[in-house]
Every structure is written in structure tokens, then in C-alpha cells.
Amino acid sequence: MSKKDTKEPSRRDFIFLATGAFAAAGVASVAWPIVDQMNPDATALALSKIEVDISQIDRGQSITVKWRGKPVFIRRRTDEEIQMASRVDVNSLPDNNARNYNLTADSSASDENRALDDNKEWLVMVGVCTHLGCVPKGQSLGDAKGDYGGWYCPCHGSHYDTAGRIRKGPAAKNLDIPIAEFVNDNIIRIG
Amino acid sequence: MKNYAYIKLFMIIFSFLSFFMVTNDTYAAAGEQKRVEKHEWTFSGIFGHYDNAQLQRGFQVYKEVCSSCHSMNYVYFRNLAEEGGPGFTPEEVKVIASEYTVLDGPDDFGEMFEREGKPSDNFPPPYSNINEARASNGGAYPPDFSVLAKARSTERGFPWWFVDLFTGYQEQGVDYIYSLLNGYNEVPEDFKLQDGMHYNVYYPGNQFAMGQPLYDDSVEYADGTEATIEQMAEDVAAFMMWAAEPKLEIRKKMGFKVAIFLFVLAGLLYYSKKKIWSRIEH
Amino acid sequence: MSKESTYIPKNGFAKWFDQRLPLPRMLHDNISAFPTPRNLNYWYTFGGILTFCLVTQIVTGIVLAMHYTADAGLAFASVEHIMRNVNYGWLIRYIHAVGASMFFLAVYVHMFRGLYYGSYKAPREILWILGVVIYLLMVITAFMGYVLPWGQMSFWGATVITNLFSVIPVVGTTITEWLWGGFAVDNATLKRFFSLHYLMPFMIFGVVILHIWSLHVTGNNNPVGVSVKDKQDTVPFAPYYTVKDALSLVCFLILFAWFIFFNPNILGHTDNYIMADPLVTPAHIVPEWYLLPFYAILRAIPSKLGGVLVMGAAIAVLFIVPWLDTSKVRSATFRPLYKQFYWIFLLNCIALGYLGSQNPEGLFLVASRICTAYYFIHFLIVMPVLGLVEKPRPIPESITKAVLEKLEIKNSKEEAKA
Lengths: 191, 282, 418
What we know:
Chain A is of the alpha+beta class. In chain A, about 25% of the residues lie in helices and about 25% in strands. A two-stranded antiparallel ribbon of chain C has the order 1-2.
């Protein structure tokens, strides 16, 4: 008993359309886990914020910590270093952007905008040269500090000053300042 | 099929099944291990979910009793605050983690050092390595808790192993663990217990290396629940199930949605198939 | 029978492409338009289901390989890392593990369908043999895959099975140590099993292409076993069988999803959640359920070499099935005697599976030996003899006639009820 082909395309097509749409939605929801599994996993995300104890750092000392796989320079500056940085006219800098993710994107690269605290003692920067990604020297006592008393990248000769701003060399941007805040007087949270 | 064919089929299937049952009884009678009873759990079944309060009590039992010998290497402190778990807040987890000492290093001088635990750390083991664990426990290694609830089971015999496939029964491990913790009965008169072993009715062979870990009021529960052996055993077993299957709740929730989706899609495809095949005689 | 292509390019680009690489044409001829017998029942949908299973295992496997570490000290931990830390890692792992079982469930249905309807008989002998090759590759792939989590069953199952190679006279031990890369199953073994486990599904994929190609040369068999005579015996594969395959696949997925979400570990063994320990042997070493029948056969024979040879013969005999069956009639639908032996054979295989999970002693050992013997009796005695002595029922003249006859019977039954 065969049904005659009735000219009812809209009714006949609806079931196929609905089935097709439903199946497509199913395929999409299966595709998402396949894609998402490549995103950073829970162990990586757990370390996306770190807390650093800075209570043992004296004036003029630096430490390097690992954050999201990269070195972060934490320096407690001396008064001399702060003065050297403050004296500079920001308009003469190769990069007049603060590169500070705690501030708005258009902030200027003044020393206040580079330091983390109101006293301007604390400098927290991602220790990756903005040229091609080497780790600049300047954290240890015996390191070369470059012509501006801050950090010096040995790969291609970029000089950073005591506020981590690029002054000379092929790098075009100041060292990045990551999202960071004081949890209390002894602990900085980065990320 | 003609009638006699049905009868033949029935005879074949019946003799087949009774073969299983006969062989099964002889198998069961041979062991001295007491049969583990099925226990009720909040996380069993299609709508299974963890009871936060129970998991927190279970965690307290683990922390105060079990963790002196049993590691839980694959569980992280941050898991305690995650969805589908004991439901601690991130602040509480920070405090819990800081109460632990964790090995880290090497430092700039090449030394390993100890520091306070952080939420991103895993539970530190009580012993440095398996050999130390064995030496401290009469040669027996206290197994790691992380997947222990999935590493244990009970023989249920026929037809249960077939039925279990379709009832979603996955709690064989925790049923066994719960029974085991309650199974430290008096040693019978005629039983020869070896040195250093302990009598347990649920352990195969009845000689168990672990001494009774739980006694009434071993732990003073933070929420005031009475800490009987049964209560603590149930709570710590539930906690172990969570440690082994932290994604249980999200898995079952997702499964329900997937099932609904597939049933609807099957229905749509059924009608699509009927529509298409109506074009020809079949 | 190679047919003329019916593909007509729909636009300028299609025509341009088709002239340079006739891929759209090939897809059209082999999927859209392929003339398929109109009477295929749902047992014929498992080929499509198997293709889906293969793709699923490959996709989930490649994803797992992004997070898995094939090292004896890290493998178990890396699997737990996947289960706990990787986004949806638990889901992908369970799909892969349950998927292996579903793959074998489908392949057994597919093979038993072939045995029932005589799909192995001329001119489809090569098709059947390619299928057995695929099955053999699946067994090897699954065996190596099970070793990767490096649990107790992974390690000891690998130890038992690789040890079997030492029965080969003279060179046995050398070959076994060559397989191991050492003097026992260890890190070297795990690493090479990972590499080969990744490789073999693509070999399976290649043989599947040959399998489908060979099918398309001879055309599908069908439930009445009568060859296609003219056009009205067939329908185009799309949309008739694409929708039927899709419906069957979704029903299969319901079962698949049941296990993944509501009982993912029941098909496995709890001992595999204990990390491998070369110094502690589990009480009962058993393979996964789909290998149990062969395990029963292996342990039924008292000698080690005998056991290996008989277990090998159990698979080898499958290769020659097209020549063992002497019946002129293909489908068991018209072979009343063979039909009964078929069901007994099926029950025998299920019994062998159960026996593989039990200790080979006492009643179980006796039963294993009987069932093993019967397995070979079915192929080597029943199949050849039955074809010569059986009186088959009269077979329909054509597929179309068979379909119409069935419809008539169905209609007259409904009229009688009314």
C-alpha cells in the first residue's frame, strides 16, 4: 500500500528540517568539549594567580618569581632609583605608555604609573624583553644593568631604566606590568 | 515462529541460565568472605548527587584518622571548593591548605624545603615513598585514597553482574569499604590469626593488615553529628567516592540532558524514516 | 559489477573540480546513489555504526594523546590528570573506554549478521576476509590500548599475552624479549604499545576502505540471500539507508550514552584502578569482556603451546568460512536446520565468554573444553555437512517478489484481524 506523492512540500520538509537542525545542534555540542580540552586545564588555571611573600625583600633587592610560565621581576627600589626614574620627561621616552594592566590603556609612562604602591618602592614587571622575548639581566647583584641603571637585554642590546621603561635598543615597548595588588603589607597577589 | 520452536528456544535459554546459577552457587559457598550488602548512597542512581555535609564530615574523618597512613596524591586542595564537591568556600580551602606542610624546592641553594600548603597543591603524602610506607606498616602498603573507591568491588554473582549493567550500580567499591570498616568482629575461637594481622569478616581470607581504624567517637564532628562507627564509615566512604569521582554530579546531570536529546532525536529520525520509506513498498 | 556513474555536476565549480579529481563523483556514486537492496533490515545498519565507532575512537584517542604520558612512572598519573584537570577530560576518557566496548559489541553483531545471512558466500569471500582482518587489527589495537593506563590489569594482561610468544620453538624467548624491549613488560613495552596503538586505527581505516570498495563491487547481500536481478530490487542508498542508518545509530548512541554517563566503569575491571606493580599479581587476571571467549579457549587446552595454537586457530578458521559452508542457499531464513545450529553456536560463544571470566578449574574447565570443541565442530563439521544434507526451503525468485510476498502476508493478517 504505497502512499501517493502528495504535493505538500512544507509539511514533508518540516520533519527533515527539524531532524537536521536537532542533529546539527547535537554535533555542535559534541564538538565543544573536543575544542575546549585544548584550553588551559585546571592545574594551569590554579596557578594563574599567585601570591608572593615580599616581607624579606630589603630596599635595593630583587626577586624573580614564575607566573604563568614567565619570570616576574619584583624589585624594592632605593630612593636613588626612584629619583632617577621620576626625573625623566615622559615625552622623551621611546614608549610613553605605562603598559600597566592595573591602569587604563592610555596611561602615560610616568614613574607613578609604573610603581605598584604609593611610595613608589615596589616595581612588579614581567621579565620578558618586549623585543623578541629574552629574559633581561639586572636582577642579580653582579648583572649588567645597562646604561640607565635598570635592566639590560643581552640578546640584542635593549636598555631598560629603573622603572623598567625602554630607553635604548631595538625593543619598542616598556616591560609589561601585570595585574597585581597588595593583599596586605607582606603579600602581593599577581594575576 | 511455530509453537514448538518457541518451546525449544525457551528450553535452551533455561538450561543455559541454570548452568550459570549452579556454577555460581558452588563458587559463592567456597569463600569465607561475608557477603557485602548494598548500602544506600545519595550519589547512586540516575539522579545521584553528593551530600555536602556528608563529604565535609568524611573529609574530617580522612584528615583526623586516615591521612596519617593513607596518601591522596591526585586530589588537590582546590578540589574541595569545586562544584560537585564538599562545598567549602575558597577562603576555607586556603585555611585548610595552610594547615598542611608541603615539600617544595630546590631553592637557590639546591635544598628542598618545606612550606605552607596552597590551594593549588595536592594533598601531601604521609610517607616520602612506598618503601617507607611499607616499613612503617609491617610490610603492607596503605593504598592511596585517590581512586581507591573505584579500585575495590564485590562479587555479586549471576544474575546481578548482568542486571548491574543496566541499573547504573557503581557503588560496589564504597559498599565494600563501608562493610569493611564495620567488619572488625570478635575473632572466632577456632580461627588462627597470624601475627600482626587483624580479623575482618569482609576481607577475603579474613586476615587484614589494617587494624580497626574507627571506634565510636574517634572523631568529634564539627556539625555535631554523632560519630558512631557506622556514621564515620559511611561518611568517609562517601568522601572516598568523591575523591575517586569528583565529576560524578556533572556527569550524571549531563547524562540526563544527553538522554533526553537522544530520545527526541530518535523520535524525529523515526518519523523521518517512516516518511521517506513511505515512498516505496516495503 | 561496475556501473555507469550517474553523477551530474550541479555547477561550474563542481564540473571543473570533477574533471580534475573525480572525488565528488565517487562520493555520489558510492553514497548518494549506490543501488542498495530494498529489503535490508536493521541488522544491516551495523556497518555504518562501526564506521562511526572507528571515527569516535580516533578523535577521542588523538585528543587523549594530547594529555597522556606514555611512561611507566607517569602514565597512571597522566590518566588521572585527564580525568580531573583537563576540561571535559573525564568525558573524553570515558567515551574512549566505553567506546572500545561498544565497538566490539557492534562488530560482533555485524559478524553474526554475516554468518546468519551467508554474507561470506561467493562472490563476497574477499569482503569477508577483509572483515576478519579488520577484526584481528581491532583485537590487537584494543589489547595494546588497555595497557596504556598502566593499571594492574594493563600490566598483567600484557605480561600473560606477550609471554605466549615464548611457546614458539627455538626463537620464542628471543621474540618475546624483542617485543618487550627488555626482560619483562616495562617502560619500553609501554612506549612502543602507545606508538603502535596510535598507528593501528589508521591501518584499520585503510582496510575499511578496501572492505567498502569490495562491497561495492559485488553489491550488498540481503536478508533473503537472493542476488539483485534488476533495478526495482534496489533503492538509492540516500535517503533510504542514510536515514535508516542514522536512526539505528542514534538508538546505539542511547546505549553508548547510558554507559558513559551512568555506569562508565562497569565494563572494565576495578583492578585497573590500582597502579601496575610487577611484584604483586592480581587474584584473577582477566582481559576485557570482548576477548573473554578467546581467553577461555586459550586456558581450556592443558599445554601452553597447544593453547596458543588452538586460540590462533579459532581466529584462523574465520578466514576460511566461505569455503567451509557448502550450502547453495545463502540466507539462514531458508535453512531451517542451519538456523538452529546458528543459535546454538551463538549461545556457545556467549558461554565461552562467561567461562573466560572464571577460573579454569573443576566444572568451569570441563565446560570450557566442551565449548571450545563445539566452536570448532560448528565450523569444521556442521557447516560443511549441513550444506550437503539439509533440505532448504524454497527461496524467492527475486528481492522484489520476496518483499511483495511479505507485504501480502502482512496485509492478509491485518484483514483477518479486522
